[in-house]
Amino acid sequence: GTSGVITSPRYPQIVDTVNENYVWTITSPENTYIFITFLDIEIIESDLSGNCYHYVEVCNGFKQNSVPIAKYCGFNPPSPIVSTSNVVTIRFSSSYPAKFKLEWQANTTSTISKVTDSKNSEVENNICTHTIQINKTSNYELLSPGYPLAYDSNVNCSWTFNTEPGYRFFVDIVYMDIEEYANCGFDKLQFFEPLEYRSLTWKLNKTLCGRDTPKLYSSSNKLKITFKTDASLSKTGFRIIVIAVCGGFFYESFGVISTDNVFNRTDCEWLVSVREGRTIGVKFTELNIRTESSRCNSVGITLRNGRTQSSPILGNDTFCGSHLPPYMETTSNHLYVKFSAPLNIYAKFNLQFSEVSETCGGFYELNSLQKSLDIMSPNYPQVPPYNCECDWVISSPPNTEIRIDFEVTNKQAECNITHEYVELRDGGSINSRLIKRVCVPVIENSYFSTENIIFIRFVTSGKSISYTFKATIHINVCGGTHHVYFSTKIESPNYPNSYSDQLDCTWKVYSSLPEFSLLTQVKDMDLISQSTDCTSGDFVLIQEANEKEDVIERLCRKSDINKEIISNSPAIIIRFKSDQMNSGKDKHLLFSACGGYIDPAVTGEISTPEFPNAYPYRRTCRWVLRAPSSRRIKLTFTNYNLKANDRVAGECIDELRIIKSPVSLETELGMKVQCSNILPMPIESRTMGMIVTFNTNGLNTNEGFKATYTTYNENPAQSFYPTDTGKPNKFTNLYKNIMSTYINSHASKK
């Protein structure tokens, strides 16, 4: 688009966005810039220093790779800002009630011009601000206003330069003639850099006037140049060439330095720094620097264990040739890297660095030899220490994805996601896209990256009781962890098409409550087995998830379709193996069962398993029906025949219970439907849905029931329940305690 307005949720109301991050992406036409003006802002500052822990952040680029421009909080709208590209990402995060409103507009220039009207002759009335993005193949010619003629009086201009991480700026002052005076008190050209990496505060590096033309280098990928004049004598001004060159400063938990950072340069220097108390792991993934002899002779990559070129050497010496050096680690939180090679020498390298905790975390690579690894909290299986933070960066081969399977606990412990959590990010750093922040103790399913690298952070804070966590990281082909509330489905790779040979897939399935068992039903199967007992060839193995991993069932035959398997425990392991023979034939299997979570429940039908036939085996089925907003559910029985206890009057062998709300377990909303062959009267929910639970021991059963559900009328009790904001609350959390005893699953081969 070309213009628009962005506001905080429910603006102008002031709302609490705790545990939520809101992200907007603005894209304007190509070759335009985006001007952003804040019209209103009320975001509390976190401390007296004005640091913005609750903020609106404006970034250049798409959210996965965006570069921060500015971060705002407080109660006064900041000055307008301009992007350096046609894409901007806006992030909003506040743990306290806050609001903001901004407007944006596309423009073909990156200049914000202001004129200040005042009778005071000392007020600057010729103001210009520019933001310039430079890439490694271009440069920028910077001229003083009016050059080569004399510059104006009362000029106040600034130019902010940005380039990619891994680069810095070379400033070539070709010509300069600026009024000279002691300390450049009248007219002056000044050079600034960020006070710290990614800081929004600038520090002064150099002030120039007169006719000197020094050569200057920045230390980071950001540079600000200002030019100020008074109302007296004017000179010719200046002509400057600004070039992005290799080198500079990194302050990242993970990063890459490679030949891509070197463009027509013979010498490059980088300083990598991480947080205090951490070290830096270094891993070469590619090295091919050709030299005329077996000795490097200062040609290649030199690593130093510290901040400067005089710090101790890390490793044996300068690295060249094609032999990959071993993994190395600094003893401090700084790493100095230098690349030297004449332009006529072939050089290609890729160096990855990562922040390493002294007690946990690190950089790991999955490959064909190591397809998985375990990570865990410090002191595992004992509780981790207070105020602990661990970072792992895990990569896999190109064009693969990564799966993380948590070791699930059935402990009914309440977690506090602000006190202890595991954070998963789709990329190699804390700035990568957030996949999920998972509360500890973990009761979640598997998670997946979309890239071949994942960043994992484990945090404990405060002095509350902490819990342990353990997870297995895989190159994702098949398998995973499923935590079942109502049902789940498991498929073989590429289902319903053919799966590949030599698969070894393992799924762990847990019920949400320890008193529930799990029912598995095979819906479809076409496997080629080399034995009648399903011990070779392609087969599925179902086991109890106990210490002995007792075998419940082996499956491989067509006759196994519709077979039902009931576990004796609240967790099972499903293993699927395929050999390297008879590939090309399509084979697959599917697990399924009764019950489920239906939202929205507008109209439909539910019935006992295999209706109108007698329902087999003992089981519990539970349906949660949730009506659309402001509606209620009506359940009408079309068939009904449940078995009563012939020996004890009033008791049922098979039981049907209905709770007239999907979010409350209060007794006044629950009812037991009489067991008989007489159709019950229609049942209406009291709120926006209902829970239907059916229990049977599977012995001497009748045909069961069939019922239709519809929605009608407004929900009379809506005011007693909170609006669904998409965030957990005390009502929606009750859903997580409602489940049925079954899973759905699948598998397939080529």
TrEMBL record:
<feature type="disulfide bond">
    <location>
        <begin position="594"/>
        <end position="621"/>
    </location>
</feature>
<feature type="disulfide bond">
    <location>
        <begin position="478"/>
        <end position="505"/>
    </location>
</feature>
<dbReference type="InterPro" id="IPR035914">
    <property type="entry name" value="Sperma_CUB_dom_sf"/>
</dbReference>
<feature type="domain" description="CUB">
    <location>
        <begin position="478"/>
        <end position="594"/>
    </location>
</feature>
<keyword id="KW-0677">Repeat</keyword>
<feature type="domain" description="CUB">
    <location>
        <begin position="1"/>
        <end position="107"/>
    </location>
</feature>
<feature type="domain" description="CUB">
    <location>
        <begin position="246"/>
        <end position="356"/>
    </location>
</feature>
<dbReference type="Pfam" id="PF00431">
    <property type="entry name" value="CUB"/>
</dbReference>
<keyword id="KW-1015">Disulfide bond</keyword>
<feature type="domain" description="CUB">
    <location>
        <begin position="360"/>
        <end position="476"/>
    </location>
</feature>
<feature type="domain" description="CUB">
    <location>
        <begin position="594"/>
        <end position="712"/>
    </location>
</feature>
<protein>
    <submittedName>
        <fullName>Cubilin-like protein</fullName>
    </submittedName>
</protein>
<feature type="domain" description="CUB">
    <location>
        <begin position="128"/>
        <end position="245"/>
    </location>
</feature>
<dbReference type="InterPro" id="IPR000859">
    <property type="entry name" value="CUB_dom"/>
</dbReference>
